[in-house]
Specification:
Order of helices and strands: HHHH
Mean pLDDT: 85
Oligomer: single chain
Number of helices: 4
Strand content: under 5%
Shape: elongated
Radius of gyration: 29 Å
Low-confidence stretches: none
Number of strands: 0
Helix content: over 70%
Length: about 130
Amino acid sequence: MNARIQLFAVAGALLVMALIFELIRKRKLLEEYSLLWFVAAVALLILAIWRDLLEILARVMGIYYAPSALFLIALFFGVVLFLHFTLVISKLTRRTTRLTQEIGLLRAELEELRARTLGSPAEPEPGDSPDLP
């Protein structure tokens, strides 16, 4: 691997790690979600520093140019991150739907209780007969 490419990869991994720490420090990124990013940055840094490991991985994967393997591995981590965030978004969507339904039911109950306690005419319930003079 060319020394310039190695230097660029190390600088990129360190930059990503510094960005993750800064986002956590400013509380813009939760620690829960930063772990995957941090693991990806550390893996990238290890592969950038340890040339032999990257060349061994490239040979195992059948890639003749080792830096290409580095980009393929980075792409793999990106896909894993996308999958993780898709799962998180799906879970949040289900929770939001459930919370919206619960709020709707509570609002309906509150309006019914309010109508009964204030004595305002509420909608007749099934089985109630209207008062006749």
